[in-house]
Structures are given as structure tokens and as C-alpha cells.
Amino acid sequence: MNKNVLDHYLEYGTYTFPGIYKDYLKSLPDDISELGNLICHQIIHRAVLKNGNTLANADKKYGDMNKFPWFRLKCDDDILMTAAAMIAELFRLDEKGITKNRTVENKIVVTCRYVSVLMSSILKSKGIPTRSRAGFAPYCLPNICADHWINQYWYEDEQRWITIDADGYFDDLDFSQFDIPNNKFCWAAQVWLDIRSGKTDGKQYVYADGKGTNGLKAAIRSVFYDFHALMNNEISYEFQPSYISGKFDKLTENDFIEIDKLAELLLNPDKNFDALIEIWKTEKKYRIIN
């Protein structure tokens, strides 16, 4: 692997910078499965909270949702944008910090992008090249591929990126959530290109905005989430390049062709690293956020 690539993914971005918590993060478990399970104990997904002790939480593996304080926010996404903010809130709620015995009332309510940012911050602090990635997960919900964020970390012993998902307990999969095969996640760029080429109509690829957004309108968001994440700039859900935000129906075929070219590069971000960095430095419209 190109050293420049690995050095890049050791760098913090605005969202992953741990601030005063860097040394603390180093003290967390080194075993990835143990660490991922530990992080799962710190969070409640807003969908789990909304559904209470039913569906994914019928066995209360996420805790008894009836004990979650009525006065707390039902989603902390808007206020805990960074890893440092999430860690600070975890300490505020429980002075023991990141602990497996965290009670429901002391968990933070965040979604997958935030879990990914937190994991990236922890692993980077441990000196492990790590990147957040965005795409669609066919294993989260039945019959659809919902938009989703995960992580990849560089495993030096095997000279490969290992894909992991710490956003919940996926006990019923036929693979490990801490070593996800490449074909078990729907990468944003591939989804975009498959829809554009007519290989699929894209209806199964859904952006979870409650409006039924799917197809290219869902894929375009994930393409830019993924691009920014690969540049260590893990933008949140409401953030998109200004030129496409709320303007999808006004985009031209030339706009789509430009995104096709970006997606082609994103299919192999290591091989195309220099080209992606050059676009990041020069293509202003991809970086000016709404």
C-alpha cells in the first residue's frame, strides 16, 4: 500500500479530531471486535428508541427503552457532530466514560455516521489508518438497502482494508460485522454507476429521510458522503455540495457525467488516490457545502 495513502488515513479531520481525549482513546481495547462491541454499548439508534422494546430490541439487547428519560433529545445528531463532542457527552452522562455497563439513560442517541466518526477517531488515535465510508447496507433492514456508514481500517498483518460496522449488534449475519466481505456492502459509487448504466432501477436503495427518497436521488447523497469521508471530512446528513442540495431535478446530463467520472475513481480509492486528492483541491463545487 502506498505510504501516502496510509499516512492520509492516520490524519484527523474536523469531525474525528479527539482533542484532549486522544490518550484516553488509546486506552480502549485494541481488539477490534471487543472495541466495536464496547462502542455498541454507548449508543442507541433513534430508530431503536422510537420502536421501544420491539423489533430489533425485542430481547432488550440495547436496553429497556422505557427507562430512557422523557426530557432528553430523541436524537443527538444535531448537537454531537464531532467525536470530541460525543466523548464529552458520554463522560458528562457517566463519569466512568466509555464503559460496557452503561445504562440506557446514560447512552447517547446517534445514528450510523456518528458511530463511524467515533470509531475512526478511536482507531486513528491508536495509530491505525482508518476511514469512514458511506453507501448502502443490505443487511440492516429486510427488502431494502438503506443508506449507511461503516469503517475500514488497515490491517498491516494481512496488508488489506477490513470493513467493520459498529452501529449495532448484528448477531444473525452469515459473516462477521467486524470483517465484512466486500460484496456484502453496497458501495456508493457502484450503486450510482449501476443505476446510471441501467443495471438496476435503484428503487431498493433508500435514503432514510422518511420521504421514500431512493434511486439516483439517494445515491448522489452517498457518493458525496463517501468522497468527503475519504478526504477525512465526514459531513453529516444535512450537508451536501450546494450545487446539488435541493436541486437534483435541475442537474443536467453533463452534471451526471461529471459525477460518473468521480464515481469511477471512488471504486478504487487507493489506486486513484492522487486523482481524488487533485479533485479535492481543485473542484470547488464538490466542497462548498449548503
Description:
There is one protein chain. The two termini are about 35 Å apart. The chain has helices at about 5-10, 20-25, 30-40, 45-50, 85-95, 110-125, 190-195, 215-230, 255-265, 275-280, and strands spanning about 45, 110, 130-135, 145-155, 160-165, 185, 205. The model has no long low-confidence stretch (mean pLDDT about 95). Strands 3, 4, 5, 6 and 7 form a 5-stranded mixed beta sheet that branches. Strands 1-2 form a two-stranded parallel sheet. Strand 4 and strand 5 (about 160-165) form a beta hairpin. With about 290 residues, the chain is of the alpha/beta class. About 35% of the residues lie in helices and about 10% in strands.
Concise account of the structure shown:
This protein is α/β, with parallel strands linked by helices and 290 residues long. 34% of the residues lie in helices and 11% in strands.
List the helices and strands and how they pair.
Elements: H1 3-8, H2 22-26, H3 32-40, E1 43-44, H4 46-51, H5 83-93, E2 108-109, H6 112-125, E3 130-137, E4 145-155, E5 160-164, E6 186-187, H7 188-197, E7 205-206, H8 216-230, H9 253-266, H10 273-282
Parallel strand pairs: 1-2, 4-7
Antiparallel strand pairs: 3-4, 3-6, 4-5
Helix pairs in contact: 5-6, 7-8, 7-9
Summarize the helix and strand pattern as letters. Answer: HHHEHHEHEEEEHEHHH
Largest sheet data:
5 strands, mixed
Average pLDDT works out at 95
Radius of gyration: 19 Å
Percent of sequence in beta strands: 5-15%
Count of β-strands? 7
Structural class: alpha/beta
Given the C-alpha coordinates, what overall shape results? globular
Low-confidence stretches: none
Instruction: Give the count of helical stretches.
Output: 10
- Rounded to the nearest angstrom, the distance between the terminal CA atoms is 35 Å
Helix content estimate:
25-40%
